[in-house]
Amino acid sequence: MYLKYYQLREEPFSLTPDPRFLHLAQSYRVALETVVQSIIRRKGFVVVNGPIGTGKTTLLHAAMQILSRSNTNNAPLASAFVLNPVLSREEFLETLITEFEVNCRSTSKPARLTALYNMFLEKQKHGGTSILIVDEAHLMTIELLEEIRLLSNADTYREKLLQVVLCGHDGALVIGFNTKQRVIQPDAIEGSATQLQLTVEPVEERPKAVGREADLEVVESALDLLIEAMKRKRTSTWSNE
Question: pLDDT digit string (tens) for 106-116?
Fold first, then answer.
């Protein structure tokens, strides 16, 4: 009912990570640019971290959308998006084989690694690259992080064959191996310090993304209640972890 009343084509405040609703505050703009540029320049690793519920997953989807749309040369891009990294090393390799759509019937680790490497090399030969995105990366074990590091060693003398994006909670994502010189880490996505800005502007922008032409009158008292509720939810979430 309210969609028709407010002249909206669809729900503007759903919880799905839709890139259309990414609010490009300064910290988000920097993080998005860093992710995209690190992949384009074949830098190997990039880390994005920030508080719970600040749109990190949406930012990753936006980055992939930008890469796809800017790929005017039709260079092949292979991507694997791991949403739940609570996996053993064997399960992780199986996930990559599936996500990258690699044809490998063998279940042995050497065969799977060879198949993945051949796919990485094939994409690179045709001007493309392979992208591994790990969301909730703070949940990874050190062993799995080491597996990713070893996998990322696949390269030519000119560039990395696999681009890795690790995304996790602020203060919880730790690079557990000695390759910090290869890690580009943008400033953590801002949280409570800019809560008012990160609340008011998206509330105003989202309805326009789904058809609303006129500005909505945002009631200050309603925003105060929303911000307070968000703070309580964040505190509750952290205390339950």
Answer: 999 999 999 99
How far apart are alpha carbons 30 and 190 in whole angstroms?
11
196: in domain: yes
- Residues 6 or more apart whose CB falls under 8 angstroms from that of 223 comprise 196, 199, 200, 203
Q: Is 198 left (phi over 0), alpha (psi -120 to 50) or beta?
A: alpha
Domain residue limits at 241: 191-241
Buried-state track 157-178, b at ≥16 Cβ within 10 A, e below 16? eeebbbbbbbbbbbeebebeee
* Residue 200 contacts residue 223 (beta carbons within 8 Å): yes
- CB-based contacts of 125, cutoff 8 Å, min separation 6: none
Q: How many Cβ atoms sit within 10 Å of the Cβ of residue 136?
A: 19
Residues 103, 108, 111: CA angle, nearest 5 degrees: 50
Confidence (pTM): 0.73
**Tally of domains within the chain:** 2
Residues 67 and 166 placed together within one structural domain of the fold? yes
Claim to verify: residue 140 and residue 227 sit in the same structural domain: no
Of 8-12, 47-51, 108-112, 158-162, which has the strongest mean pLDDT?
A: 108-112
- Residue listed under structure tokens 């860093």: 34
Same domain, 123 and 223: no
CA-to-CA distance for 232 and 51, rounded, in angstroms?
14
Which amino acid is residue 118, in one-letter code?
Answer: N
